[in-house]
Design goal:
D-amino Acid Aminotransferase, Chain A, domain 1, Glucose Oxidase, domain 1, eight-stranded parallel beta barrel
Length: 800
Amino acid sequence: MDTPTSTFCVPFAQISSKDIQKVGGKNASLGEMFQKLQSLDIKIPDGFAITAEAYWEFLNYNHLRTILSDELQKLNLRDLSNLSEIGAKCREYVQNGHFPKQVEARILEAYRILNHNGDSFAVRSSATAEDLPSASFAGQHDSFLNIKGPKNLLEAIHRCYVSLFNDRAIKYRIDHDFDHMKVALSVGIQKMVRADLGSAGVAFTLDPESGFANVIYITSSYGLGENIVQGAVTPDEFYCFKPSIAKNQSGLLFEKLGTKEQKMVYNPSGTKPIANIPTSTSERNSFSLSHKEVSYLARCCYQIETHYQTPMDIEWAKDGLTGEIFIVQARPETVHSLKRNKDIVEKRFTLNTQKEPICTGKAVGRSIASGTARIIKSLEEADKVQKGDIIIADTTNPDWNAILRKAISIVTNKGGRTSHASIIARELGIHAVVGTTNATEKIKDGQVITVSCIQEDEGKIYDGKLEWQEETVQFEQKSTTHTNPMFVLADPFQAFRLSRYPNAGVGLLRMEFIIANVIKIHPMALASYQKLPAGPDKEKIAEITSRYPDKRHYFTDILSQHLSLVAAAFYPKDVIIRMSDFKSNEYAQLLGGNHFEPKEENPMLGFRGASRYYRDEYKAGFALECEAIRILRENMGMDNVKIMIPFCRTIEEGNNVLKTLKKYGLERGKNGLEVYVMAEIPSNIILAREFAQLFDGFSIGSNDLTQLTLGIDRDSTIINDLFDENNEAVKYMISYLIKTAHSQNSKVGLCGQAPSDFPDFTRFLVEQGIDSISFNPDALLKGINNIQQAEKALAMLPKQ
């Protein structure tokens, strides 16, 4: 754009991040990126900023400075009881004002130069104190889309000025101690990207829930991006891994299809410039971005964060005519970035009551709250909300901020993790459940409910006041133990949060939990789908895997993506993934499982673990597990992933498994791949030297080892009192294994509850020189304390 710089209008090409006081944070950021990042193939729509000086000139011309100041002085700051009255008067004064001739002339000149073929423009408010690290002003002021023609342009700019005195904006300035008459409004005029024909969304250069910094989180939906910002749709979601992006790899880890209920488009025949229309079935069932587009967008976000040296909140749009992806806004992320370098304090919740939820959605935050449900359809019902209520709504918007501050939780029908309800919940330090689809139907106004966001990424709403326990823990991120504390994990969606804990990685990631809880289909039913007999199981499998012509790809995609969340969370620390370890009766419970599983008298000692992997009855299913690991290591760059073989009874069986792994693309030693074996059968201990020649390390499964050493069915209630890891026979087996393995330069870890429950057992393990101990998440900190005490006691012993 060749518009000459003036006091009142400045082209993006002549704006930098130093110009916040001149053009506001939003426009300063756009100018900064327009100037300095387009050489990196980051596309920014051209435009210009109407300066803060133009706003002051508008106030002076209409003699509004004193009038507005006097009016705002009348605010009752104690309870803001007259906010709506004062706000309405201020907006009326500004609305009745007129542009000074010289300001209007400059705006129209800049517009004429930029406008070529009747282009559409976005007119966006940009406050001069906007997007500071401590206050974002996001959503406080109005913006307008698909604006055409000089008359409509001037009207939209005028309405931006008016929005500086929205009730929510006035209250926001009071809450953040900004002087009303020292905050000016700049307006950005930016060419519209034809996202109405494409897609748009929001990206964060960290995980917005946990603050985990090594991923880029992208949301996307068809049409203009305002629907995502407002929470009017449940968008597609994508996670990308920064270290892979830095190596010019794809970086895509995980994707989740959103329902994308509607899309915002241009409205040429209506009175409003934009309108929402329903999306088609095809659009709802397909992703709004391709993998290539996700990777390109993630790289843009990574470069923007690198440039600004801080986590960023980014809005983007894809032009449906050209296929190009543009960045239309970028501002500093203001929730997690402020918490950095502080002690980690976390509340843990345990729900004591088990019952079926009324409805479920996407969890925002990690907490439990109980209160009275207030169904709110519009701001006219704001008086219904009392402090401590739970707000139930179709969606929320910035006008609701005042009433949302009264709530202890928020539940919406629509929206994703970047919706207004999600963002305001994080800022207020409360939790929310978004995208339930039916909360306003299932929940009654005045009903007492409990909202729980402590299970995976799913939020649940229950009838009544449930009982729960609450514990506050504070910890440092680093552990100072010689024995490595590691995690036992089953839920990938907790990995980002748990990665902040002191740890040396994941000693056991249970693959079968992902298969059971997420995939839900027997691997052989997917590997041999065409041979599966017709019936309810096949119909259900067809429905679940409808987007996958080759049903095997459903398994490998879903498994690799969920495993990748854990591998990325702890990268570059070790993540040891145990191949599936169901018993035949557990496999049979998966969809299609009854067609492939034998009936066994004692499944605990039957067709499980290693014996399945190389046999014809399951070999094709194991091939899918292997392919998921191969994708994880080779395509996603997760070279920190190691694999572990459970219940390997004999040396011959170990050889058979290693040959099968190699056949399916996982060769021990190739590209640094390490293969561990569970030590849970007496034969693993007795032949430890021989097993150490086959595998890179051992992981003691203390439950099975105790069971098989003492000959006790651990599920038996009659002789349960005899089950004891501290039994001398069990301890002898463990001690012998550690000594033998170390003589062969093999590492040994242990996965089990005993080291966190029994300090003496931990001391025994430390004395034997075990390399690592893996704990369930709720036992890790206690387990580390037990290790520290054991190592301290050991250090005090006289040297021999």
